[in-house]
Amino acid sequence: MKVRNVFLCQSCGYSSPKWMGRCPDCGGWNTLIEEKISDTRISRPAGPSATPVPLDEIDYAESERFLTGIGEFDRVLGGGIVPGSVVLIGGDPGIGKSTLLLQVADRISNTSHNVLYISGEESPAQIKMRAGRLDIASKGIYLLAETSLEEILGHAQKIPHRAMIVDSIQTIFTDQLSSAPGSVSQVRESASQLMNYAKKNAVPVFLVGHVTKDGAIAGPRVLEHIVDTVLYFEGDSGHSYRILRAVKNRFGSTHEIGVFEMREGGLEEIVNPSSLFLSERTPGSTGSVVVSSIEGSRPILTEVQALVSPSPFGIPKRGAIGVDYNRLLLLVSVLEKRVGMHIQGQDIFINVVGGLEIREPAVDLGIIAALSSSFKEVAIDPDTIVFGEVGLSGEVRAVTSAEVRVKEAAKLGFKRCILPERNASQLALDSIEIIGVSTVKNAVEAIFP
Ligand code: TYD
Ligand code: MG
To answer: What is the value of pTM for the model shown?
Structure first.
């Protein structure tokens, strides 16, 4: 076995024989770190070789998935856990990754099923303390404080288990490599061996991943390519709720989110997120409007706020939280040019309440409404919701799933909905008044009658 030194980029996995200040692949500065890697010849693992099989002869039943009973978690995974899948969960320190996985372990273990919880960071006593706080008394959770991959796989063969949790992948190392735990080659190698283990034994494996300062899962991007599912656990320290978001999922939609709240006794799922995001609204305030956006398969109503005020300096300021900044600039220009609202010279800020990010164009009309309301200093009727995509010529374009959005609003007691004309013409609901608009100008007239 020949050992050689290479420089590996810690953020994208690029390898170079010499040191460079900047990674030519991902452009990161000072990300190339020297690591020893061994040139081992890759040989086929022992065992029968696979043969091609016709698609219709493969048996797989969707029923092989099993549920944890934590509805929000199951939904984000695409409808439960797929045996043999590897799920990577990333998130800031202290956000609740270990708490979530301990609660998951509690739900899927019982007298006949074990869960193996491997901790490379905390001692069994610390985990026991957390379990006490969460009121977990399951007899099927086996804790193992170990960081050597070979040891872990050895123990895994001895204790039959229904799922394995590895907290965190950055602490795990394999003897086959001489580089330090947490280095790119170690993380990559450990993850792919755990992947092999999962597939071979049809056991789901959950990996906790640390995130770097800029929010990406630490270690090479290839880690995200190796695993089947990548989830991010998000939230900010100022709020108690947490959002679990799928960014990659081989077994389901990537747009799903799960909403939780961190309480004294652990994470509690929020079955109706709309009511949570709207709970602190002050009806009658200017620049505020409720929009209906779709996250995965589910509509979520959120409040969008705008603040438009005369700019004290020559160059007006712009700021966007929760929506795309460039989208905001575009919509400001549409208001100026197509509606004749002289808003360009003002300081403009947009905020989606509750730390939610709305990435779909249906929020456009909501931004327009909030901006106009703040600019005109006229409040929007609190029982109205707004959604629709806005084009550069000031037209309002149809969006997907209009009916689901309107029904969610009706369910929460909203009385009026302003939406694209094309969507409105296909809807027949009598629980809520529906106003179709085809241009931004129409929309502003409908919002401020
Ligand atoms: P933890 O799961 O340790 O975070 P991570 O593994 O992502 O680093 O969660 C730590 C935080 O959660 C900690 O600040 C305390 C809080 N917490 C609660 O508020 N209630 C609880 O029941 C538990 C277990 C933790
Ligand atoms: Mg932790």
So the answer is: 0.80
